User: What shape does this take?
Amino acid sequence: MEADDIFCKLYPVWKKLGWVIAENAHAYSIYCVTPANPGHALVMPRQHVQVLAELGPEAAYAFNQLEVDVFETLKRKHSENPEHLIPLYTEMSTNPKGFDPKFATAMLSHQHIRAEPLGRMHGTNLDKIAGRTVPHYHGNMFLRYGDDKLGIADAVREYLR
Assistant: This one.
């Protein structure tokens, strides 16, 4: 990780805090510091690129494999302890490390804070106009729960309201 963005600079901090969910030689994943729902994760390549196509085949495969691994890791953590996200969001809300704590605070009272993740939705904002805030390719993984009705189209409609 060679650039000056937060994904390149803050990996050691997030690792020390225990916010890294899973990693491999080419990518890593963290809990999002501005979560939209409980377990919202970011998956990013270690190589600083703007789009996935800039990665070589091995790194692109590893990035995609990590998305699967992150979901499996989050499901396992939930099965071991349904309250595993509460200490994380408590820490983020009381000691936000420069990020707005309102997002983590909202997660603590979210209806799905203890719910079992049953699926996932993955999205990528490729340009600033599309909502990208960090100039380093990354994907957002949103966990899906049994009684949430938001698919990607519903999420976009809700955002546009």
Observations:
- The chain has one domain: 6-160.
- The two ends are 37 Å apart (CA to CA).
